[in-house]
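Before relying on records like the one below, remember that each one covers exactly one chain. Contacts with other chains, cofactors or solvent are not represented anywhere in the record.
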Amino acid sequence: MVHHSSRRTIQVTFLSLCVFFQNLSSLSAQQPNDGNSSTPSSATTASVNQTSSVFSTGTVSTNPVTSVTLNTNSKAASQTSSVATAATSALTTTSVTSSTSSSSAKGSGGPGGTSTPSATVAPTVISSTRKTIPDIVTNLSISNKTTSSVSLNWNLSNGISYKIQWTDGYSNRSNTSNTCYTVTGLTPGVNYTFSVTAVAADGTEGAPTSISAFTFPDIVTNLSTSDKTTSSVSLKWNLSNGISSYYKIQWTDGSYSNSTNSSNISNTSYTVTGLTPGVNYTFSVTAVAADGTEGAPTSISAFTNPYVVANLSVSNKMNSSLSVYWNLSNGNSSYYKIMWSDGSYSKVNTTSNTCYTVTGLTPGVNYTFSVTAVAADGTEGAPTSISAFTKPNVISSLTVSGRSISYVSLKWNSSNENSSYYKIQWTDGSYSNNTNSSNISNTSYTVTGLTPGVNYTFSVTAVAADGTEGAPTSISRFTIPDIVKNLSTSDKNTSSVSLKWNSSNGISSYYKIQWTDGSYSNSTNSSNTSNTSYTVTGLTPGVKYTFSVTAVAADGTEGAPTSISAFTIPDIVTNLSTSDKNTSSVSLKWNSSNGISSYYKIQWTDGSYSNSTNSSNISNTSYTVTGLTPGVNYTFSVTAVAADGTEGAPTSISAFTFPDIVTNLSTSDKNTSSVSLKWNLSNGISSYYKIQWTDGSYSNSTNSSNTSNTSYTVTGLTPGVNYTFSVTAVAADGTEGATTSISAFTNPDVVTSLTASDINISSVFLNWNLSNGISSYYKIQWTDGIYSNSRNISNTSYTVTGLTPGVNYTFSVTAVAADGTEGAPTSISAFTKPEVIRNLILTENQTTLLNINWTEPVGNSSFFNVHWSNDISKVSSNATTKDTLFNITGLTPGVKYNLCVSAVAADNVTEGQPVCFKAYTKPEVIRNLTLTENQTTLLNINWTEPVGNSSFFNVHWSNDISKVSSNATTKDTFFNITGLTPGVKYNLCVSAVAADNVTEGQPVCFKAYTKPEVIRNLTLTENQTTLLNINWTEPVGNSSFFNVHWSNDISKVSSNATTKDTFFNITGLTPGVKYNLCVSAVAADNVTEGQPVCFKAYTKPEVIRNLTLTENQTTLLNINWTEPVGNSSFFNVHWSNDISKVSSNATTKDTFFNITGLTPGVKYNLCVSAVAADNVTEGQPVCFKAYTKPEVIRNLTLTENQTTLLNINWTEPVGNSSFFNVHWSNDISKVSSNATTKDTFFNITGLTPGVKYNLCVSAVAADNVTEGQPVCFKAYTKPEVIRNLTLTEKQTTSLNINWTEPVANSSFFNVHWSNDTSKVSSNATTKDTFFNITGLTPGVKYNMQVSALAADNVTEGRSVGLSAYTKPDVIRNIRASEITISSVFLNWSEPEGILSFFRVHCSTDLNSVISNYSTNARFFNITGLIPGKRYIFLVSAFAADNSTEGQSVDLSSYTIP
């Protein structure tokens, strides 16, 4: 049975172990890998009850003894080991049962529903005998629990002791005799079952009373926070001992919101959420047992991470600092942590503000700034970052390293190396108001594309990589003005060259013109102008000058010069003369008056002779021109030529070569009064020929005439005379060639008054006269057309006979000279032949028509024959008419026609002598007459030749003013009418003239004005502040009115006005402004305007205001004023004085001026005027007069002071003064007095004796007001003499004196004494009116003087003197050395001091005197005494005044009886 039971027990035990290990395996599978506990989803509780059965009496009692709980926590492994041990130990005694604990459904973890396996093992108590069992204990309770102990209380039973057993899965026990017991060594947080069993003395145990209780769970350890955020904190902790069912988490934010929250968890970590950022939370974690028993809480405080800052921004960036701003949008923070880094190092600081200025930064560096909200415990929120560059440092040493017309090169230094690039900006200011910029990484940059001559302001700014700019550094420079272009010279003359140029680009303030004559004088001159033209004057003729024109900017920056070289025109040669002329050469001589020339160009022309000009260059001042044509007028011009060929003005002289001798002189066409001469000029030309003729002895007269032809008909000759003709070629200037001569008779004169009378059919009586000259005979000829006959007779009548009737005979009578030269025959027809027509005239000539008219001839005629031809077409035409008029049409205009009309006899054949003349058709009108140029004295016209012929053109002009008409002819189709009057309307007509110089075509006319001449002497007669008055002289010639134009460069407004006066007042102007004034004359057509004469003038600036003298000193006058209304450039300060006659000027841009270096005490005339920008135009001065303060007088001394008088003297001050002001006062009477004097001395009288006076002398200018600095000193008047000086006592060594105070003031008295013996003087002062002079020498005469002294201890009144002797001292050692009956001989020693003599007094008593004796000796013999009588002798010394007696010494003695 037993064996069977044991076997069964073993079986149960093994079954129990299987269940245990199955559960253990299940638990192990649920353990986390990291060894930490976790809460399983379900659990199985196994209770193993171990019962030991001992076979005794067959009763078996089973009691629970121990329970073991296996927790799925960190102690699972150890507890598993314990369970295994327990299981092993119970293999032989244990029965195993399985049960499910209802409490396990709740689980030790609380709400998680976890379960805890447990095993209870109850031993089997074996009793061998039956005992009395104690009562069960009652009221078992727990009075106190801790984490490791439970205190039990119960009531007493009948037991002797108590057995306490407790189990947490394991059984423990202890015995006590008390009714209380504290179980210790417990595990925290474990549910223990405590049983208390009363035990009898024999060990019999009663029934146990049980109670269960959890120990307090242990305090959690290692509570820490982690993974904090702005709204959560993660907590972690350990349970260092024991177990707990769950953990109670509580947290509070303290005073932030005064709220407390809690949560229960089974884990040893928990994240608290929903927190406020940056708040200090206190977290407490309490382990709680399964029954809710709480352990002690463990607390920890932690701040939530503050919220991330928002709106982080940067402002106020500087080169070493910037300000950071932000907001905290949620929660709380204690302060903020600012961290900044430049990538290589970092710095941190904190602030409680939401802004912070970071200093000490490096310029131009990119800093990352992070701002973190920090809780009070240092818990930091998430940082918010921003990057920003500090401003780069300002660059240094910005300089201009180069510049041109279009660029400026900049260089600079960077004080730090942390800028990304540099921003260069430049602006040309008001020139175009443009600003440009460029970015570069270098420290130099060339700004290109600039406008020449413009003042640019360049700023260089260091820029960080993000574009943050540092402070700019600026510099201003002008670009170099552009080179002037198209520099050219014009209007050169001997002493000036006019330059013109263009400035192609940009601007310039002015142009600098420089010129040098090279090595000629090695001098360079310059001038500035604002125009683009300049006339350089004062040059030397013929010198090569190099002119350079440089555009200069307003700051003096010069552009590249443009140079041009030009020679001045050499000076005109002087004293040009001709000499040694012949037919082919002329010698020239001249002087060159000024300047230099390289050579001389000699030109000569024979004018229209050959239209050739020849020249030669020489370096001498004389030249013989050879190879000339005889008789030609040569114009010789000598021109000084510079080295470059520049020619001076030519000096011309005309001279004819001698004409050549004429050749082939012959006579022809002689008639009664003329001889036609012909000749040739074999070489050259002549202007004319001088023909001389003489009739020899006929009248002994010689005549001459000039002709330009090589033939000449000498007329006015006497018919039939033998003349000698000489022909000499003469040049136009009268130069005559050699003479050629020939002789010839003139034809005898035609007979006159040849008449045919007594005509019949066969004869005619002829009668005639010889009206002039002589003849040898007459030759009569007649012919009928077939036959001719002749006779020579000497009479003047003849009857021709033998004629044939009805025939028309022609009779001719000819005078015949002695050489047979016949005169012209005079004919007459005897046949009624028609006579020549009469009065043939041209009644009309037009361009294609000539109308002629005539009178019928005397006698009969049948009709008329009209014949015409011209020399051009060589075509002749004829027509007949019975009328005495005829219209010839279809002619060519302007052509000369030969017209002949003759009467024809009835036979239609016999024609009378034709009458012929020449006539031109009128030329056609010219075409397209236009005015091509009008100048002041010139009108140029142009036209097209007319259709047809014309020889030349007649130009006619006149004006309605002078009523003078002028004509000129020209072969050209243009004409320059010169010498006209400016501004006058001219009537211009041009007509074509035929070759006869008479026949003129219809004129074409129009009117035109000459330009008025430029006005003359345009002057500014008055310029005021708002007015400019100008005056001018009317131009030469005429004008209708004047156009006045003015403008200024400031307002850019131009104005015009017209006036008929030669003056104009321009009003309403702005003061101090430069105006451009132009005046031009306008002709009466209101259109034709002369050249304007312009000049610039400034209006006077307004007068300055409030001119005041702010300070005047000896050499200085300070003045102040207010700027005038309007414009002004600066102020002219003028000062002068009437003494030195020297005027001084100074200019200033300020409204104050210190005039220094002036002469003291002089009246200055001060004027201040505003000056316009031309530095000339000056506004009305505002003047006033002011004196400089006279200089202080010098050497002011007191020359005399008496009791009521002070005499002062001084030296005049440097500079000028008019008089002196003398001022005196004293402190006693408080009365001040003044006086003036022109002398340098002054006697102040009427003063009080012994008083201190304050004396001041100042120089006063001539305005009687301006006073120099006074020179002052103090002086006392002498006190008055003391009164009633008396000697009150005298002793041997002292003298007492007394006196009365002087009238007026004195301070004390001066007592002076001396003696003539020792020559020693002594002084003493006293304020008393007595004085005891001691220490004197006895018997001496003292001279005492007492004077009153003023309070200055120096000024002494006149002394009052008193002489007194001190008493002589007593004699010494008196004795009677020899006594007789009637005498006593006394001797003694001289006393101290001085004495004059001794007096010996002898008496019989002291009251009576017998006798007195004086002696100079120191002994005396008194005689005449009475024998035997007592005598008293007194001896005293006397001073030299014979009255002052010293103390006597007595001696008594008896004479011998």
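Confidence is low (pLDDT under 50) at residues 1-129.
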